[in-house]
Design brief:
Shape: globular
Order of helices and strands: EEEEEEEEEHEE
Distance between the termini: 40 Å
Number of helices: 1
Number of strands: 11
Largest sheet: 7 strands, mixed
Length: 128
């Protein structure tokens, strides 16, 4: 079992920055990738960013490319999402997720239902 604990959400003005953190505890040695998703307006999980454990590849949604950066600290089993130039449309709940024993292709690591563990979510609010 793996437990994910997110932190770092909050409220900022448009153009501001936030950094989300996700600490993984438990049986993490089978990790393939970790990702960040957010709740879209239709209540569906929307891919934001992902990072693979083997090769350290990163992937981003077009809507956040160039503004958000995903990174990881292996020693702390923690993944970060640095969010810059935030826009009001970035407002929603952000979730961290972990995928294990998978294939670290772009299609797999960007697909929500292929992730095995999820955090509780953290609210990000961007005001205009």
């Amino acid at each position: 079992q793996v437990q994910l604990a997110e932190s770092g959400g909050g409220s900022v003005r448009a153009g501001g920055s936030l950094r989300l953190s996700c600490a993984a505890n438990g049986r993490t040695f089978s990790t393939t990738a970790m990702g960040w998703f957010r709740l879209a307006t239709d209540k569906v999980q929307e891919f934001v960013a992902a990072i693979t454990w083997s090769g350290n590849k990163t992937y981003y949604a077009d809507s956040v490319q160039g503004r958000f950066t995903i990174s990881r600290d292996n020693a702390k089993n923690t993944v970060y999402l640095q969010m810059n130039s935030l826009k009001p449309e970035d407002t929603t709940i952000y979730y961290c997720a972990l995928q294990e024993d998978g294939v670290d292709t772009e299609m797999v690591v960007t697909t929500p239902h292929l992730y095995d563990y999820w955090g509780q979510g953290t609210q990000v609010t961007v005001s205009s």
